[in-house]
Write a structure and sequence with these properties.
The chain is built from 4 helices and 2 strands. By secondary structure, it is mostly helical. The chain has a two-stranded antiparallel sheet. Strand 1 and strand 2 form a beta hairpin. About 0% of the residues are buried.
Length: about 190
């Protein structure tokens, strides 16, 4: 059985003029003070149980726990530790991301080096050199006739006896005006 405590929490509560309650088994009795009077039995101090299970036990209601000083100090220490570790953790994560970025760049550079080394191996082959000289520098062997095709629309129009094509205008309104003029030139009303 739990005892009632005083609001200060120091011990059992006592009311002025009342005596202590003792429990022995299922029966409660009151100790009598030296006043010589017998206290009355009150129904609030005695509980009866119906049935044959025996005496009912008094249960204490759960009390809300207050935050103690130790708990508060512990919380403050944990908060201080958390704040102390945030900056180094942030620096660590930044360095990890920078490291990953540098490793990715290094892999790209290795791939570029591999491509350039393959191209260098091609240039060491004499047949590849001859093909590149023909394509880029228009070299020919003895007895061959070179044929160079140029994209020259003005020269092609002059040889064919047609008008020179108009230069493409740089501004949008020039394009619009030239299309209006071309439509007027082709209209059947004239």
């Amino acid at each position: 059985m739990t005892q009632r405590r005083a609001p200060s929490g120091q011990g059992p509560a006592r009311r002025p003029g009342s005596s202590r309650v003792r429990t022995t088994g299922a029966v409660r009795t009151r100790a009598v003070r030296n006043t010589g009077s017998v206290p009355k039995k009150s129904s609030r101090n005695r509980r009866t149980v119906t049935g044959s299970r025996g005496a009912a036990k008094r249960t204490a209601a759960p009390r809300a726990r207050a935050i103690t000083g130790r708990t508060m100090v512990l919380i403050v220490v944990f908060v201080a530790l958390a704040l102390a570790y945030t900056y180094p953790l942030r620096v660590y994560l930044a360095q990890e991301s920078q490291l990953a970025q540098l490793e990715a760049e290094q892999a790209e550079e290795r791939q570029l080096i591999a491509q350039k080394s393959q191209e260098l191996q091609k240039w060491k082959d004499p047949e590849y050199l001859r093909a590149q000289a023909r394509e880029r520098l228009f070299y020919v062997r003895e007895g061959e006739v070179p044929l160079v095709v140029r994209n020259d629309p003005v020269g092609a129009a002059a040889e064919a006896g047609q008008k020179q094509p108009a230069a493409a205008p740089d501004r949008w309104y020039d394009t619009l005006w030239s299309s209006v003029r071309a439509a007027d030139a082709e209209s059947p009303n004239q």
